[in-house]
Amino acid sequence: MVEKNLESMNDLVSLCKRRGFIFQSSEIYGGLGSCWDYGPLGVELKNIVKNRWWKAMTYRDDVVGVDASILMHPTVWKASGHVDNFTDPLIDCKKCKSRFREDKIDVNAPCPNCGAQGEFTEAREFNLMFKTQMGAVEDTASTVFLRPETAQGIFVNFPNIQSTMRKKLPFGIAQIGKAFRNEITPGNFIFRTREFEQMEMQYFVKPGSQKEFMEMWKEERWKWHVSNGIRPEKLRYHPHGEGELAHYADAALDIEYEFPIGWGEMEGVHSRTDFDLKQHQEFSGKNLQYVDQLDGNKKYIPYVIETSVGCDRHLLAILCDAYRVENPGTEEERVVMRFAPHMAPIKAAVMPLMKKPELEEIATGLYKELQKYFKIEYDVAGSIGKRYRRQDEIGTPYCFTIDYDTIEDRTVTVRDRDSMSQERVSLDKIVDFMRDKIRD
Predict the structure, then answer these.
(1) 431 contacts 373 by C-beta, under 8 angstroms
(2) CA–CA gap between residue 313 and residue 267 (Å, rounded)
(3) C-beta separation of 244 from 252 below 8 A
(4) pTM
(5) In 62-177, which residue ranges form alpha helices assigned H by DSSP?
(6) What is the distance of C-alpha 117 from the center of its chain?
């Protein structure tokens, strides 16, 4: 059998729309640039990703969770540097008024949109934060921002959480939430969007120990991506050189995935030093020092190791990694999403061989029983072969077919998605069969 991986992002976009994973936002009105809606299967997969991240990060004794507000006091973003430094240099085509990032275009080349030669304005800094107004009066005093990252909601809650949860260093605070960036050049499906979801954890450590914990979290996060079914050979570390480091970091690396568009960042692991807490201490006037009772009540600002993964990007990597085409260009061509069984949005499909009451009664009973424990689909439309192919395209690991033998011997045909092999399993053993197969 010849098998090939996903070669074009367009193929994945098509499948995601056709099968209910992801749709363009406001599509009936022509869409909205780089905004996407998760359909029934997409939101199921996204919830699996978020739940697995939350369990991996907070079902441990040294990390707790928080859910901070999207809208925060404007001074938060002044202290963090986003008001003054969170910018892109932009240029405009004088003819068609299209806007581009200066670092993404040759100013002496024709405009990519209209072809005008060398007709660009001087570069201007463009802040990437979305602004809005709080209250009934629109003036500068009422301006607030949609948060461009979730990290600051963790930092400003550091003293509250440390005291109420009685946490000693090292400990972390985790959060899943929406963030917004007015990117001028978003694209490549859900890889870069203006509205996205982050899964971040800030791990507070004693100054001088950051290298040790950076190494620990680097390895932990790699294991998590692999545990979600992503092939290790499609992953790599990308350490940041001196020219790439953010001004607040003393070390950083990315965990990258090889997308069809090339290697791209999924997660960053950063040693942020004490920059953020120091900034918020200065701008708020509040004492954010930690009192180390194990070191003679010494007071200091903790250092921070950050793990920050884009939920949407990780989900995109899962989709890309699962996409396979078997026997391309032949009559036996099959598109199959090879999700790890525990990651599949639909864990199994129940299918009566035909629309016959005696078969549907058994199938409906099995469906209702399995639905107590797993996300299951009941599929009765079309030939059995077409139904199998439909389930292959959404990555359903197992299909249970009820036929006339089932009436006689109380067994059903179980069809495996990857091998397409079939076996008979007793009706009263199917729940145990699924529990054994759908394992992490």
Answers:
(1) yes
(2) 9
(3) yes
(4) 0.91
(5) 74-80, 82-85, 151-155, 158-164
(6) 40
Partners of 299 in the β-ladder:
291
Closest CA to 314 of 58, 67, 56: 56
> For the chain, which domains are there?
3-74+146-319 (3.30.930.10), 346-437 (3.40.50.800)
C-beta separation of 251 from 271 below 8 A: yes
Residue 40, SS3 per DSSP:
helix
Q: pLDDT, tens digit, for every residue of 18-41?
A: 999 999 999 999 999 889 999 999
323, 325, 339, 396, 405 from 11: Cα distances, Å = 9, 11, 17, 19, 39
Q: Is 369 helix (H, G, I), strand (E, B) or coil?
A: helix
Q: Both tokens of residue 16?
A: 């995601």
How far apart are alpha carbons 374 and 439 in whole angstroms? 12
CA angle 19, 22, 23 (to 5 degrees): 100
Q: Read off the tokens for 97.
A: 């008024």
Give per-residue pLDDT as tens, 131-155: 988 887 666 668 899 999 999 999 9
Q: Which long-range contacts link 97-104 to residues 24+ away (Cβ below 8 Å)?
A: 99/184, 100/184, 100/185, 101/184, 101/185, 104/185
